């Protein structure tokens, strides 16, 4: 039987999928939902200063526009698989899309920062469930031989959206207003919901499980849900606000870290013992799935941290506008678009673990390449080339990881598996951004202190530079005292810039090593049989 029902198309019982090409429209449809959600996450961040100015909000208040949505997504992700089962995947997907469009409209019309933050919470609750449901639909819609290509279409949304988001957000803010960062979601959400309503049907296994749950009385794991919701929301808050609050020097961050540790620890123990858990952690007993989840965590950290920090480097240190920085890294998105179909085809012929190995190695060397080329005089073309290099590795990761993850997973567990994979990617992104943000701040201070140590009159290079700058400054207004002060300020600004650049170099080295440290996980995976559903080869 099929997971997806197409209009007037016969079921191909040999492949467990529908004939015709409507399933590719379904793939584009669910990928479009994920693209919209990820694009919104990355584009809103470039509009925060305009939002704060328009709504008369302080900098600390306006950051809640981002933090509130991240916390809401962390809360809802564990329950996505359960809700898709008891409500129906198609129905829940459609409801979430319509609600996402409605809240996006209200976000754009917000009269105050409080109202906007509240709407972002609701938006996060709806948007957090889109990605796991989209992956589950793809898994049930396509036969194994075509699943790699289907995940390739989905992977484009996951990898390209963080690249396009800052560019689009910057363009809308510069040429229209911050409100349009939210308004653009409305037609996409409505169109996607319409396509889902006419194309997608729940698979028979899910329909049967839903009927069984309602017939036997709906047992909701309230304890597990509560523990995971409290733990993940506290953890997300800590990761989002830790650097701003100076981490464990803050009583709030320390307290919430303890809450997260206790709640998540208790939640994991409870879910493993529960007969009807809200999230099935027993799936991690599958060797392939556990390895895929851990690798996806690392890939999420690398993708989202590099995608947020590189534009900041270009804007803060090189003076790029949001649009120009987006254009500099956009060739990487184009490279992914070209490579994903190739990777999708290869996934039906090559073992997923070897493709993942290749992707991790290339990603590591691409990140080390950033560390070598980043400087105050790096040009536009060099940034674009470095991003294309990184995209080569990323293209060989998302599709094979998704293919490998579902090997051996029962049909009625695809919702739960998709939830865990997306939770790993989301948490990886949050951990990665928090770690890199903190590293850059700390290493900037370290490099600045080391560089300043050399700025004294016992250093002939410093003395000569100061003298030359003082002379050139005095030629402008004739005051030697003012000229000397301006010369020292110029040297200090150069030291600050160089310290910042060195901290970014350190951060890309760290991300590269994170990829290399993930390599042993690949060898935990069994050799899958490309194109065979749920089968693993010996070894």
Classify the helix fraction into a percent range. Answer: over 70%
Radius of gyration: 25 Å
- CATH third-level topology of the largest domain: Growth Hormone, Chain: A
CATH architecture level-2 label of the largest domain: Up-down Bundle
Q: H/E element string?
A: EEHHHHHHHHHHHHHHHHHHHHHHHEE
Summarize the structure in short.
The chain contains 23 helices and four strands. With 539 residues, the chain is mainly α.
Overall description:
Helices cover about 75% and strands about 0% of the residues. By secondary structure, the chain is mainly alpha-helical. Strand 3 and strand 4 (about 535) form a beta hairpin. The longest helix has about 40 residues, at about 415-455. It is globular and about 90 Å long.
